[in-house]
Amino acid sequence: SLASPPSSAGMGVSPSSLPGAQRCRGGSGELWSSAHHTGFPLNSSWCQSSILQGCFSGSTLGCEPEKCVGNDVVNDLWSLCRCCECLRCCGRREPRPRTVWLGHPEKRDQRYPRNVINNQKYNFFTFLPGVLFNQFKYFFNLYFLLLACSQFVVEMRLGALYTYWVPLGFVLAVTVIREAAEEIRCYMRDKEVNSQIYSKLTARGRLRGSGIQVPADMIFLRTSEKNGSCFLRTDQLDGETDWKLRLPVTCTQRLPTASDLLQIRSYVYAEEPNIDIHNFVGTFTREDSDPPVNESLSIENTLWASTVIASGKVESHGKLFLREYIGLFDLEVNCLTKILFGALVVVSLVMVALQHFAGRWYLQIIRFLLLFSNIIPISLRVNLDMGKIVYSWVIRVLGNGVVFPSMVLLFPGTLTQNEMVFKRLHLGTVAYGLDSMDEVQSHIFSIYTQVQFTPQEPPAVKGLSLATKVRRTMSSRVHEAVKAIALCHNVTPVYESNGVTDQAEAERHYEDSCRVYQASSPDEVALVQWTESVGLTLVGRDQSSVQLRSPGGHILNFTILQIFPFTYESKRMGIIVRDESTGEITFYMKGADVVMAGIVQYNDWLEEECGNMAREGLRVLVVAKKSLTEEQYQDFEARYVQAKLSVHDRSLKVATVIESLEMEMELLCLTGVEDQLQTDVRPTLETLRNAGIKTLWSAWHRPTGTERAHTLLNSTLPQVTNRGEAHLELNAFRRKHDCALVISGDSLEVCLKYYEYEFMELACQCPAVVCCRCAPTQKAQIVRLLQERTGKLTCAVGDGGNDVSMIQEADCGVGVEGKEGKQASLAADFSITQFKHLGRLLMVHGRNSYKRSAALSQFVIHRSLCISTMQAVFSSVFYFASVPLYQGFLIIGYSTIYTMFPVFSLVLDKDVKSEVAMLYPELYKDLLKGRPLSYKTFLIWVLISIYQGSIIMYGALLLFESEFVHIVAISFTSLILTELLMVALTIQTWHWLMIVAELLSLSCYIASLVFLHEFIDVYFIATLSFLWKVTVITLVSCLPLYVLKYLRRRFSPPSYSKLTS
């Protein structure tokens, strides 16, 4: 993700979007350009990992021209194609290496897809058929469609057509409107980003556009910045929020102007596409020079610009297919619906059997199926969906209100603040902490002041030469360590205008107030800032030199001969520099203790002190050095250049050459940097653990001191590279008990490749699993495997674009808005600002939403079963006739305006206060056991429905007078009052809206009696006889339930009742 430096005004692109209105064909060989940039679009970079957001605008990466770092920077870029094999237009063939010519589009060997994004599920023609198909492919909706269609057959018609089509139409209308709104939103967003226009450089000149965003990967060709480099951020690719140093191709950097790029004959050879985001192998060849120039290309020469890294299935137009989430609660409700359908069929068959299957009995079965269709409530799905909208509004998230009751597997991403503070310097015999840094400063000052010097001869030279003649003092040891830390890094100081001093003057005089540091890791910046605080300041750096400033203000110049950047495989970085004042060549290296222990000279304190510092939560680095003669370096350089030009096994050959230097290095010091945890991480994890979320999987993308502490206190799986090592280590780990597992991404890949079942079995038995340096695809794979192996619900928490694939794979995704952007939060079901809010999201909102949805669904089922029971009693009394008890508006009004508001008001109910739910996370365990919605509670509600329906119907039959219409009046009024009283019985904490809903529904029913003279005798309901009969029936149906509720709370109270009292 190309982005602006910290002080620049960056321009962003929405997640999962790819600009490219001026369509660029991948591999076209055309040069992309702007006023300050030139590039060469080859094709988009599609990989199955996470969504990558990028922008490239202004004088440097992602900023306005007047606000950039290094004014008038010209970055000439060559876009490089890395088309994924999953693109259908490219076929299912194996990915192959390719050669792309600079400025010669006619030499491309194949066509590539257009770089456009399309996140819509439907188009104009497929929208309505697609939405209807997705609705009716489920049995629940298909059943009601068949019922409604059956009313067109005269023999099956039971009443007016609108009694069946209006409810179904309402449900479909809500769904269509919701889908249409989502499609329009996606269309507008895609149209906006696809309309972005970029410029390109041609032989006739530069074509300007409104934007400068290229939908392709880039090879960095040229920059006018004098340090010959640029920076980019990859936070949406690998989670790192820090600046990465990128270097241009050497031979193109030497060209006088950008237009000269079109005059040379050159091409790039690129490796086949792959999902490794940390490595790239290629070569740049210029044919028109004598002799031809060959340069090796690595990840340092590449830039990502406006590139989409998509998770899921990718089509030729970048269409991302997101799976539809079906929660556990939805599955439970579907299961209950199937039971109700079975009951519907059984009741219908019993009714026909009691008629001894007389006459056209098969038609009677269908009529009874239609008559008792209320057993399956059509309004259930609408109520639950509307409830989720209410929950989402309450939580204030950008999600779909997914109800997640029983999370037992949690996948948090990085839990640190990503802010580094230097804490410890250890020299073996002495250690310096924050309270003793003044001693380090005094040692550095003494080295540069203990001998008189002239401006032509820097003081450090005499100081060091003196130290070599006598026994090394503590000051010289501290100086060597600090100088190594100040030189061995990839940090670049950048000078900016501060309103008083302009940029050029600040850079010329190394103004401290105008200097900011850019680096690929916050650790690096923290180390360089610490060396500045103790007196040795990094004031300048370019591609070939480094300048340090001593406490006395003198500039120390060093020439960079070679840089070996940090990689996850090597776990170390090195640099070879030449001191311009003495000509001495020194190889500095720093890295993790596990690899540096075999590189440095023998000592008896390294392992112990690394363990001590790691237990304090510090990120430990080992710093070492080695002096080289001129002959040794020349021999090394020849072998190193030859290895870098190799196309096959380049990494292995380069590593072999570098390892020839990494022997018997002098151990200088250990550094300890602290990356503090986010606020209240430990209490939040303890809360989740107490709530029954038992297995904690942490998939982090980089090693930290916390992980190192896990390694020491529990158990780590050593690095494994083949099947044999994996077999031995897994067997060794099997013999350990009750210990956490710490494993790296490389080892995880080997274990899952050969021993997937065995590894997952062992991992599931561990109380916690920490996965270090995981790729985005690995995070999603872990979540998917845990779902398959355990059958449990998973919750993934992430804060960066590299967590998107994991979030979308989990049953519930939670995105944390932080320094790494909003891509994770936009892709998730729920969005929070800090990790600590996850506790409240689960313990309060998650618990309340599940219990409310459980109560709502069971009450909707009770409402339908009650009227169905009355219909069954009515039919059995009248010789099993398939005649409806209520017709027309009565049957529609019963489930809508008469009872809808009170029933739906259950979404506002709660059993305990939010503070109590947070204080006692054990309350969440009831949800893990499924107590709010289980077969037991379902059976209780079924019995209540049968009891109340029978009492109301038999009471109306016993108390009615001569007119049948009196039965309808008495029974229907008693039914409405019973439902309102049952809502009151179910509510545990009253809300003022609940009272309003009850009174509103009762008022609507009383007011509508004037218009229901077709079904109800208006004069009869005004008599005293009607009133006492309805009162008696309602009391008999409800009063016993109130008594039972009181007795239950008195002798068997629920767990939360003790807390509320």
Automatic annotation (TrEMBL):
It catalyses: ATP + H2O + phospholipidSide 1 = ADP + phosphate + phospholipidSide 2. Belongs to the cation transport ATPase (P-type) (TC 3.A.3) family. Type IV subfamily. GO terms for cellular component: endosome; plasma membrane; trans-Golgi network. It is found in: Golgi apparatus, trans-Golgi network membrane. Its cofactor is Mg(2+). It is an enzyme of class 7 (translocase). This is P-type phospholipid transporter. SUPFAM superfamilies: Calcium ATPase, transmembrane domain M (SSF81665), HAD-like (SSF56784), Metal cation-transporting ATPase, ATP-binding domain N (SSF81660). Residues 1-25 are annotated as: Disordered.
